[in-house]
Amino acid sequence: MSENAFLTVTDLRAGYGGARVLHGVSLAVGQGEICAILGPNGAGKTTLLRALSGMVRVRGDVRLDGADLSGRSPDTIARQGVAHVPEGRGTFMPLTVEENLRLGAFVRRDRRSLRGLRDLRGRRGGSAVDADLERVHTYFPVLKTRLKQVAGSLSGGEQQMLAIGRALMLRPRLLLLDEPSLGLAPMVTQELFRIVRAVNEEERTTVVVVEQNAHLALSIAQQAHVLESGRIVLSGSAEQIRADEQVAQSYLGYRV
Fold it and tell me: Which of 241, 236, 197, 192 minimizes the C-alpha distance to 32?
């Protein structure tokens, strides 16, 4: 693995209770790169992202820009600039769109004091958080028209936009996306991936994306890894992975 990698994962092992899911996963992602994680259901893709964000106990080494994240709590890892958009979006349904977005900035050191929902509903006045709300709106203009609407009343696509927008409020250095296209119409999925690529290019945000739509994931990624049964069985550039006959037959639907 490159010594200059921004994210390095070495011999990562993780699971739930006594059940081991990841068996010595190692990978490296350069700063500003998009890395796609492919594989069948049950391969450990979601567990990998949960391990990177501190949601499951791990053995092994995880480093972000040299900082050791191994075994750290989710809030500590978030303060290091890691934002995780989980499968199923994790939106706070009873809260408004604006409240959800402001919660994304909760662990930031430059935020204004946010003590409960009264502050989330009412703080104004040109703060860095307010500026980032406007920044998120440039990527997701529809959210600006829904600010006072409760998140549970949004469409599936809008909820996914909200989940990604909330993650961007952290000003992440590393963005983890778990199945962002799940349950969405193809046109909405295409737009989401266009925005993810724009965020990556404009803000140099490093992205690790787990995605069932391998075509789309490989179209925006620089590198990719294929997981099977908790182990990486294939790694390379997105072009190399796309050209691999095994991947083509298993995930892309054609023969090389």
Answer: 197
Strands 58-64 and 67-68: antiparallel
Count of alpha carbons within 13 angstroms of residue 112, beta-carbon side: 17
**108 close to 171: Cβ distance less than 8 angstroms:** yes
Tens-place pLDDT, residues 19-60: 999 999 999 999 999 999 999 889 999 999 999 999 999 999
Q: pTM of the full predicted structure?
A: 0.90
Which residue type is seen at 61?
D
Rg (CA), the chain: 18
Dist CA 234 CA 115 (whole Å):
47
Give the total residue count for the chain.
Answer: 256
The strand pair at 82-85 and 174-178 is best described as parallel
Q: For residues 54 and 78, what is the distance between their CA atoms, to the nearest angstrom?
A: 9
User: Rounded CA gap, 121 and 95, in Å?
Assistant: 10
For the chain, which domains are there? 33-54+82-227+237-252 (3.40.50.300)
DSSP 113: P
**First and final CA of the chain: distance in angstroms?**
28
Q: How many CB atoms lie within 10 A of CB 243?
A: 12
**Is 110 a residue whose pLDDT tops 80?**
no
pLDDT of residue 90: 80
Helix intervals (H) in the chain: 45-52, 74-79, 97-103, 117-122, 128-139, 141-144, 156-168, 186-203, 214-220, 238-243, 245-247
What letter would DSSP give residue 96? B
